[in-house]
Amino acid sequence: MPSAQELVRKFSELKTLPHVALRLTKLVNDENSTMHDFEEVIKLDPVLVTRLLRLVNSPYFGLINKVESIPKAVVYVGMKNLRNLVAVEALRNLFRGGENENGFSRKNLWIHSATVAIISEMIAKRIFGLEGEDVFLAGIIHDIGLVVEDQLVGDKLQEACVAYDPSRNTLAVCEQEAIGTDHSQVGSLLAQEWRLPNEVLKAIRQHHDMERKHSLGTIVSILQLSEYIAGKLGYSPIVGRFDQLPPYLVRHVRSTMSNYKVIMRDLPAEMAKAKDLYETTE
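-> C-alpha cells emitted (282 positions)
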C-alpha cells in the first residue's frame, strides 16, 4: 500500500499551488514584508486581481465605498486574508466532482471545507477572542488529503467510506485499514510542501485525533468543534456521517452553549456573505 509520502509525491506531479500562491505564503511568513510587496506579486496574476477586487467589494467585507485599486484592496483585505483568498482560488476546482453511491463527493467536501472554515473563524473570534485568518485557512485545507486519495487510490477510499461508521470508528481509522495512510497525514505533508504555517500543519495532521485532549482555543480543537457543527447542520463530506466530539469538547460546548447557539443562528448569513469565496465553476 502507498505511504502518505508516495501519494503526495504523485499528486504533486499533477497539482500544485500556483507560483503566486507560494510567493504570497512566503511573504506572510516574513515579518519584514510590506503591502507593496504583496501588491507587486498580485499584479502577476490578472485573474487574481479580478477576484480580489470582486471580493473586497462583496458583502463579505461590507465596505460602503467601492474599491477599484489593488493597493486599497490589499489594505482592506489584509495580508493573511489575501493569502487565504489565493489558496481558495487555487483549490476550488480541485474539489469538482459528482457524488458516488457511498455519499462522498468532492463537491460535498468543498462545501464542508468552506463551512468548517467559516465556523472556525467565527469560533476563534467570538469564543476565544482570537484572529481567525490561520484558522480559516486550516478549515479550507484540512481535508485536502481526501482529494489526493480520491484521485490516486479512489477505489480504496471508497472501501474506507463503506466501512466508516461514526458509532464505531473514524474515517481516518478506515482509511488506515484500506489505504495504509489517512487524509490527515497526506494533507499535512502536502501543506508542508506549500509552506503553510506550522500551527496549520499541526491542525491538519491532528484534527481526527480524538484520543488526545487538545488545548482549548488551538486550531486543532477549533477544527474538531467546527467539523462537528458542520456535520450536525448537514455539511459533511460523506452524507449523514461525521465524527463525534471528544468528551473534553462536549464539556466545553455545554459550558458555553449560549454562545454556540448564536454562532449556529448567524452561520447562514455568514455563509451567504462568503458565497464568492467558496462557489465553484461548473
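The mean pLDDT is 86.
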